[in-house]
Amino acid sequence: xxxxxxxxxxxxxxxxxxxxxxxxxxxxxxxxxxxxxxxxxxxxxxxxxxxxxxxxxxxxxxxxxxxxxxxxxxxxxxxxxxxxxxxxxxxxxxxxxxxxxxxxxxxxxxxxxxxxxxxxxxx
Length: 123
Fold this sequence. Notes:
Blueprint: H1 2-21, E1 38-39, H2 42-45, E2 53-65, E3 68-73, E4 76-81, H3 84-90, E5 99-109, E6 112-122
Parallel strand pairs: 1-2, 4-6
Antiparallel strand pairs: 2-3, 2-5, 3-4, 5-6
């Protein structure tokens, strides 16, 4: 029963995340608004406006405390926040050698960009 509940919750999250990231205007200028998801590198993410939706691929290389981690791709590092509940809900464990895809939202505080992770998967 508990396992079934977890599987149902997982699929509900996947459906809700995919519907959020799959919608929006796709015509001219679509990549310039914050409502459109963009596949970006770390260096590109750092230059995007607050609340931009992004997808990044790379590795989580270090825990830096209270749900925050250092995420790295070939262009650099950025802090990502992964809620403890998300790890539990998705039922995944990720090591420093595992490539991952994260989907989230740019969060700029004190002129420093971080990623608020909404979904993560091991590649």
